[in-house]
TrEMBL record:
It is found in: Plastid, Chloroplast, Plastoglobule. Its main location: plastid. Residues 1-23 are annotated as: Disordered. Belongs to the methyltransferase superfamily. Residues 184-284 form the Methyltransferase type domain. GO terms for biological process: methylation. GO terms for cellular component: plastoglobule. Keywords: Chloroplast, Methyltransferase, Plastid, Transferase, Transit peptide. This is Methyltransferase type 11 domain-containing protein. It comes from the Eukaryota. CDD domains: AdoMet_MTases. GO terms for molecular function: S-adenosylmethionine-dependent methyltransferase activity. It holds the Pfam family Methyltransf_11.
Length: 346
């Protein structure tokens, strides 16, 4: 069933978190008459499909959402219908932690765990555990998550990564058309860039998203330690890049730092990124290249043999991936094995 996008109530609720975490009684979700699209759905950016959807939703607006219930930016990872949120308003860690989310279509509920909102398909499952490939599992380790910003990430500089400050500046240039919108930092790790995006004040909302529970816990600790960004427009979300919890065409910018080579199926991930981006939305990613045009021809077979299995690509493959998934205006900057690429949703 289609859901309306309804602006969050302006004042915070004083309800207790235990009350808010109760399953939401929303079998036939009632909808508000006051329809507004969320900030990231600003009119100049609307896709035709989004407009049609909003109209369809408006036609269903006979009933009303309950007190403190509204539709936020998150969608069900199973069916992609926008989730109904119940709880205090505000796009910040505390308010999201105290909110419950429900898909009226699947009747599934989602809530926060350890300060991040779990929007994986497996959230809440009791018996089933999904084993992911090495590139994903490695970063779920508490030790790797702890070490990540304490030396691991810094070691990327040896391969040509210009360092977080410069990478952030480069990404911000590409993201100019997305200013003021919703940015999702996919595979955020310990939140190195999410914190910079949130602190920049450039975006109305920043979602730090990763599959690793421990990376998200580490992100939370770093956010708390910095103090100043806890109340920024920032959310911590657990999700699989191949199943992004956002409605189609609802995201202005997607950043994926040093992540493409870690994803189980890069083509599924980039298709998914293309799905959630709105028309004109920007995708910026960085990764390690297997070799570049300046790598001596004699060294290539060796790099080919050892690095292909780690999903290290060559420049042309990344461009091919982006284009085949429907993205356009591909550009890139290369420095030794480092590549930053950008592409746009038509
Ligand atoms: C090398 S870290 C990059 C962290 C950060 N973006 C940066 O620029 O330093 C790669 C991240 O990809 C995440 N990742 C791996 N597989 C994933 C998946 N299927 N969905 C979402 N994130 C995934 C890992 O948990 C890890 O945090």
């Amino acid at each position: 069933m289609a859901m309306a996008a309804v602006v969050a109530p302006s004042s915070s609720s004083s309800s207790s978190s235990s009350h808010l975490r109760q399953a939401l009684p929303l079998k036939s979700p009632p909808l508000s008459r006051n329809f507004h699209l969320p900030q990231s759905f600003r009119p100049r950016r609307l896709l035709a499909s989004t407009t049609i959807r909003a109209v369809a939703v408006e036609q269903e607006s006979r009933a009303q959402l309950g007190p403190n219930e509204y539709v936020d930016v998150f969608a069900c990872p199973v069916c992609y219908e926008p989730l109904i949120r119940k709880g205090p308003s505000g796009f910040n860690l505390a308010a999201i932690y105290r909110s419950g989310f429900k898909c009226a279509n699947c009747n599934k509920t989602y809530s926060s765990k350890d300060n991040y909102l779990d929007l994986t398909v497996t959230a809440g499952m009791k018996s089933y555990t999904e084993a992911m490939p090495m590139g994903t599992e490695l970063f779920r380790s508490p030790l790797v998550s702890f070490l990540y910003e304490r030396g691991w990430r810094q070691s990327f500089d040896r391969s040509g990564f210009p360092g977080p400050d410069e990478e952030f500046k480069m990404a911000q240039e590409y993201f100019k058309p997305a200013e003021g919108g919703l940015l999702v930092d996919v595979s955020c790790g310990s939140g190195l860039f999410s914190r910079k995006f949130a602190k920049s004040g450039t975006y109305s909302k920043v979602v730090a998203l990763d599959f690793s529970e421990n990376m998200l816990r580490q992100s939370y600790d770093f956010i708390k330690a910095e103090g100043t960004i806890s109340d920024a427009n920032l959310a911590l979300v657990r999700a699989d890049v191949s199943r992004l919890p956002f409605a189609s065409g609802s995201v202005d910018a997607v950043h994926a730092g040093a992540a493409l080579h870690c994803w189980p199926a890069p083509s599924n991930a980039i298709s998914e990124i293309c799905r959630v981006l709105r028309s004109g939305g920007i995708f910026v990613g960085t990764t390690f290249l297997r070799y570049t045009s300046s790598t001596p021809v004699i060294a290539r077979p060796l790099r080919q043999q050892f690095l292909a299995r780690y999903n290290y690509f060559i420049e042309e493959e990344i461009e091919d991936l982006c284009k085949s998934c429907g993205l356009t205006n591909y550009t890139m900057k290369v420095q030794r094995s480092f590549i930053m690429f950008s592409a746009q949703k038509p």
